[in-house]
Write a structure and sequence with these properties.
Layout lengths: L1 E2 L6 H9 L8 E6 L5 H6 L6 E6 L3 H11 L4 E3 L6 E2 L3 H11 L3 E12 L4 E2 L5 H7 L12 E3 H11 L13 H11 L3 E14 L4 H4 L1 H22 L4 H9 L6 H24 L5 E2 L2 E2 L9 H12 L5 H7 L10 E5 L7 E5 L6
Parallel strand pairs: 1-2, 2-3, 6-9
Antiparallel strand pairs: 4-8, 5-9, 6-7, 6-8, 10-11, 12-13
Helix pairs in contact: 7-9, 9-12, 11-12
Length: 349
């Protein structure tokens, strides 16, 4: 549990953790350079399970250090302004013991403070993997992570830290995407095991623009990896690795669409590069009509994941509707015939 200037709420979090029905755990608290009474409040608790570490103010570094010093077979994430339900650890420990194939397991949550709502999340691995294309489907302070999976992941990636420091405000989202691409499996328990605080002082409220931009960066990373790295037979890859049951026809339909669009994108790219003389009766563009390759690739990626819905995307980046006008790029999702769509600054897009 990392904490920064959490004096006003840390006691609620501590009481909810120390009062768990499952009590065989250590509580690793990473003080992220607090300047209020947070440390003094923590030190008032005479519980040998508490291990307090004091760090300079660097949230992701504190997260990574906390992972490195934790000793348990499982690592449970918690935020200092939230509260656990009494059976959270027991429920998640039992599930992980019964499902050794699962690397990360989250849960549903209920918000409190500025709002009161139920946060439902996708439960099955296949839905979580597909859902990660569009948003973060795991509530970070609700997850339990298998230590062996963490070690295997870091060894495979040849890295010393779990969370990527370049993705501040979306470090957990980036981690789930990387683990999904590496073949690790996920689950969410359809039970409310966490009370998730909502307030105007939260990072997601104070730094909304940065959160949205980093979220978009993670989505681009995932999409690009899928477009570049998946075998040509996308549907077979998904079925083999996700074990899609027949009871999920909607998912199979979406994967079939993904296969179709992947083939279409490759055809458009080959057409654009002159490797296919005609596509849908349209000749390849002349050299003077071509633009930078990165723009074509990004347009393909955005289209493939339905992020080509430009008004919504522009709004999320806080850009005006007329932010792009003047240059031609290839919009592979405009219709059955390749067409040029005008944007002002390809690099921004």
């Amino acid at each position: 549990m990392p904490v920064y200037n959490g004096a006003s709420c840390i006691e609620d979090a501590l009481c909810s953790i120390l009062g768990q029905s499952f009590n065989d755990f250590e509580l690793v608290i990473m003080d992220d350079g607090s300047t209020d009474d947070t440390v003094e409040i923590i030190q008032e608790y005479a519980d040998e399970r508490i291990h307090l570490y004091r760090c300079r103010h660097d949230f992701i570094a504190s997260l990574n250090q906390g992972i490195s010093v934790a000793k348990g077979d499982y690592i449970v994430r918690m935020d200092a302004d939230d509260k656990m339900f009494p059976d959270r650890l027991a429920e998640q420990f039992r599930f992980m013991e019964e499902h050794p194939d699962i690397a990360v397991c989250g849960s549903w949550a209920r918000t409190f403070g500025a709002s009161d709502e139920l946060l439902r999340t996708s439960e099955q691995d296949v839905d979580i993997r597909v859902g990660l294309l569009y948003h973060n489907v795991l509530i970070h302070p609700s997850v339990i992570i298998r230590r062996q999976a963490v070690e295997n992941f870091m060894r495979t990636k040849n890295r010393r830290e779990l969370y990527d420091r370049d993705y501040i405000y979306a470090e957990d989202y980036k981690l789930w995407v990387e683990m999904a691409l590496s073949g690790f499996r996920f689950a969410n328990l359809p039970k409310v095991l966490l009370l998730y605080r909502r307030s105007d002082s939260q990072v997601t409220s104070l730094f909304l623009d940065q959160v949205m931009r980093k979220t978009a960066d993670v989505q681009h990373y995932y999409m690009e990896a899928l477009v570049r790295e998946l075998p040509d037979d996308v549907s077979s890859w998904y079925i083999r690795n996700m074990e899609i049951p027949e009871s999920l026809p909607g998912v199979k339909k979406r994967l079939s669409e993904a296969l179709f669009w992947k083939d279409e994108i490759y055809n458009y790219i080959r057409w654009y590069k002159g490797e296919i003389p005609r596509l849908y009766f349209t000749p390849s563009p002349l050299p003077e009509q071509c633009i930078e390759w990165d723009t074509v690739q990004m347009s393909a990626i955005l289209t493939w994941t339905e992020l080509h819905q430009k008004p919504k995307y522009l709004e999320s980046l806080r850009l005006s509707p007329n932010a792009f006008s003047g240059k031609k790029v290839l919009d592979v999702g405009a219709g059955p015939v390749p067409s040029g769509t005008c944007f002002d600054d390809c690099r921004l897009f």
